[in-house]
Amino acid sequence: MFNGSGRLFRRREKLEPSQKFGRRLRAIFTSGKLDQAEWDELEATLLGADVGTNATRSILADMRERMSRKDEPVEALRATLLAALACEQSRDIELRKSADGTPRVMLIVGVNGAGKTTSVGKLAHLAVEEGAQVVIAAADTFRAAATEQVETWAKRAGAQLISGEPGGDPAAIAFDAVKSAKESGADLVLVDTAGRLHTKVDLMNELGKVRRVVEKGAAVDEILLVLDATTGQNGLTQAKVFGDAVALTGVILTKLDGSARGGIIIAIQQELGIPVKFVGLGEGIDDLAPFDAELFVEGILS
Amino acid sequence: MFDSLSDRLSQTFATLRGKGRLSDKDIEQTCTEIREALLEADVALSVVNGVVEKVRERSVGVQVTPGLNPSQQIITIIYEELVAVLGGAARRITLAKRPPTVIMLAGLQGAGKTTLAGKLAMWLKREGHTPLLVACDLQRPNAVEQLSQVAKQVGVPIFSPEPGNGVGDPIKVARDGVELARTKLHDVVIVDTAGRLGVDAELMNQASKIRDAISPDEILFVVDAMIGQDALTTAEAFRDGVGFTGVVLTKLDGDARGGAALSLSSVIGKPIMFASSGEKLSDFDLFYPERMAQRILGMGDVASLAEQAKRAIGGDEIEAMEAKFASGQDFTLTDFLKQMQGLKQMGSMSKILGMLPGAAAMKKQIADIDESEIVRVEAIIQSMTPLERENPKILNGSRRARIAQGSGRKVSEVNSLMERFTGAQKMMRQMAKGGMPQLPPGMKMPMGMGGAMGQGMGPGMGQGMGQGMGALGGGFGAGKQTPQKKKSKSGNPAKRALEEGR
Asked: Would you say B121 and B156 are in contact if contact means Cβ atoms under 8 Å apart?
């Protein structure tokens, strides 16, 4: 099992931009008591981080309750945000094949341009570094040059690539990858699917088919939604619709190295209970870290 | 997932009828609702506050009269404010006096620049230009390869001397590309650049060097319609780092409200020039402020619905069907089936109906729709012979029994379908006689769609939807582009308020 929280720790400097959020919050709380202007400022900060109106409202309510118990503001906020990110589901990910030798299978899904292929490359690299033997299925047969792009990543990461013809059946490619992984005794199959907007019913159905076909070969362990940190309130709808189509097990929050703060994950976690498992922190192959709520909030508040 | 503003306001004003004037408390409540709705649409907080203030000022004078719904009056006010902001700076692409016109694309990673480059090239080609694509994204793995394939698909030449993947000097490629266009007499050059983060000084610097090397006539900032509050920060970083002259909004085929459009128009003051909305390279159009304002407000997206319908059913088919009815032929079960299948391609029934203005009023019915009803209707029609489909009148008892058996349904279901079909047929005959309002170009709804929608729905839905589609017809007339003289008072209050507010 893999839960390398140390990894996020090592890459903490990458979280620098989102720390503005924390600094700003600390600056808001000049005294132990909050007046209306400070509450407004806090609300504006949360809304400005894409936390969304509902989640912001519940965070503020929780915060007020803690403050009424005379908690110190920064501590109250830390506790509130941690509670907002608390999740019953584990964030751990299995990278090695199961005891009976079946490979782990991860489906990587998301809207266009979220960073699926890059995340697949980084995940493959991370798994190879942890000693896993990785197979990547180039199941994005739609976008121009998608296979070439994932091929480049596979080479960089040292993973085997299974690909098909442009316009080919993604489910078949994914199935072939699982089959090949079983034969070669590989640990992990990463299925890079084509970007699709959640409003395209046919494409969402196709995703369901990919899953069903893969399951004929091996159980699907993880279905990870790749979500761009700049995404606004639509992220919640995305998570919901993708979840309805293929039962998501987690989120990879990408591009957190920019100025965006990715607050939408709080709403996703609160309303849908889908945990964030990884964060993408840059363009390098090493720039993917397991998400850790405590370190995340710590990073926000330090 | 989110209630549209009109739903929210309807609730707020539910108790208001009969009052002479909105009280301060009513206005306060209204402003809260507007604020939340705009925030949920991802409009930047500072912009939200500005809009809310304006609406507050204008709401003070709103009269509550028994005949008029105050929420619709307020919505009209907001709508006008949004259109004013969105359309204030509208303009079209500026062509250079001495060709080639150089267009440079810039934006965040994953915004859709490379796809957009292809779409823009195709659009320009159709407008009679001879564009050249230049591949300057040498950063992202295989971006050059992607642009080459896109270029091939649209049949536009590409200049890509460097393989990319980190190899090559994008500034030199840009300069040589423009030079090549000059010698080969291409009148427009589209330069695709690497996606970059606003905070990445190095890449931003590279972009400004590309800009200096080719002095573009237009720099288009490509932004994803799904972007949240970061839109302003990013746009400001690009404005200060590279500068841009216009904005292109991508991925509008999703269901994001696209509030970023409002933030950008309002704060950055640069016009939004194009709207890009799909996977196909032809899914690209000029930007219409009215449509965007409706979308942000969640007012039901009739224009998009009509376009989706057109796409799903196919333009040729629609024309053929229209010609058929115009020539006096009757609406048959074959047509009915075709429409039903077209509808199915557009997505779930509840989603389609949700796009209609006034959908809020039918929320419960929409939630109760049995999506498999369409499948059952399809099965019944497909169990008929071609002759029966063309001449439903011949369906006697024994034929109906056979059809029921063939489709695995009950005879009563066949009967009820036939009843509903007869209703649709009547409606179609009326429309063929000129009951359908003239639709503006590009907004044609396949004739009889309403019939199929209204009748395909199963017991209880037919009536309501027939009216809903009546609203659709009226809704078409409500847009600014339509010189509609008929006083087709729309069945939908939002649209009616708009018509009357003008």
From this structure: yes
